[in-house]
Design a protein that fits this description.
Blueprint (H helix, E strand, L loop, with lengths): L4 E5 L4 H6 L1 H10 L4 E6 L4 H6 L6 E4 L13 H13 L4 E4 L8 H7 L3 E6 L11 E3 L6 H11 L15 H14 L6 E5 L11 H13 L3 E4 L6 H9 L5 E3 L6 H9 L3 E5 L2 H9 L3 E4 L5 H4 L7 E4 L7 H11 L2 H14 L1
Helix pairs in contact: 2-6, 7-10, 8-9, 8-13, 10-11
GO cellular component, one term: cytosol
Protein name: ADP-heptose:LPS heptosyltransferase
GO biological process, one term: lipopolysaccharide core region biosynthetic process
Length: 339
Amino acid sequence: MLLKKITVFRALQLGDLLCAIPAMRALKNAFPQSEITLLGLPWAESFVRRFSSLFSGFRAFPGFPGLPEQGFDRNRFTRFLSEMKRNEPDLLIQLHGNGSIINPLMKMMSKGLVAGYFQPGAYCPDARLFMPYPEGIPEIKRHLKLMEFLNISPAEEDLEFPIRSEEESEYGELIRAAGLEPGNYICIHAGARHPKRRWEPEKFARVADVLAAKGYTIVLTGTLPEKETAAKVAGNMRANAIDLTGKTSLGALAALIRDAALLFSNDTGLSHIAAAMKTPSVVIFLTSEPGRWAPLNRILHRVVLPEESDNTAIALFNADEALSEQVLSIKKERIQHEL
């Protein structure tokens, strides 16, 4: 079937989009000549530029009642529907979620083919092209299952995160100024978008002190709004830390994670960047689902479950495992392969 224009609807955050990249690779491989547009949150325009090998364009989604990611403006939404009708895709894929809220909107956005997920017992726009939402599996595998359902050949499950040359230059200047040596520092990322996903700064500080005592330089990372959280971690540490919170672009931060010995973080988008870079990590889960969001490689990436999160000894045990010779040798092999 000739599909000149395909639009993928996924109006979510960084980690959500990264988990969809293997499915997007499969889609692009199946339709290499098609224009694939991401319909997402306004911030994701920069994401599309980063993944220009997979996406041809971007369209901002204006919000919809019941979706918490952004507010709803009726006038903007009306204009958006008019624009969609003027530029209808040949195929619109609902990759946003189980469809319980958004599926009634699919046919309003396009009179062409629509595909995606539906919740059994709820509205299904097209039984031929909508599959029951797969519960209880990793997010990466869920979207690959949809591609398989649509008769699209599967792609590898590995994540990726392209870094531009100017971001590599920024990173190089950053580590020179901070006196960091690749492989000899550990990134501590204590922030998270949702407050309920944030482990206590005091616990991060205790872990950071133990890791510093092993000879690693501790680097605090995060966005500018997370500066206060990083300051609390530093204020509770006995060892010195280099605070780079709010001082890096996303690409330079990804390069920083790539060359770290370890990322120790909450369940946040940065943990998926560590998975893309094959950097060992320990991810603290407090309220989100580890079975859905944890990195797939459980040798490189260790998980602290919600019921274990009160015990810093368990977190430190996982950090030791992630820094073991076996894991670090895997990382060295990855670096040599890339060279």
